[in-house]
Fold:
Amino acid sequence: MGKEQARILIVDDDPIIRRFVGTLLAHNGYEVHEAEDGEAGLRMAASLLPRLVVLDLVMPYKDGFEVINGLKDDPSTRRVPILILSVKDREEDVVKALNLGADDYMIKPFSTQELLARIRKILERTAPGGTGCTTS
Structure:
């Protein structure tokens, strides 16, 4: 009681991954929302204003790179942290996502404990009124 659940949006076209990650996060006290493609993810992020977006890169309609750009271009979602969760494991994909504005990057398959730890650290670092700082 008293502690607000962090709202997390999962954007992934794979329903099994969405369900698995969503259940994991819900069991760990997070408010979870899901989008099945990049376009839906951008719409939901703008209306929900989540504390974090967990984003796949390989999706129909808009891929993850386009979603990062869309989130960063919209003043209402510009500061929402993004954790990439993708099968794309090439260095250039990781670097591109981070350079576009992603806050962290994990490769599928992934450790659930590592995912939870990374989410917790991002949320601590970006907490409203928190001590996390960003540099340009």
Summary: The longest strand covers residues 7-11. Residues 131-136 have pLDDT under 50 and may be disordered. The beta strands are 7-11, 31-35, 52-55, 82-86, 104-107. The longest helix spans residues 112-125.
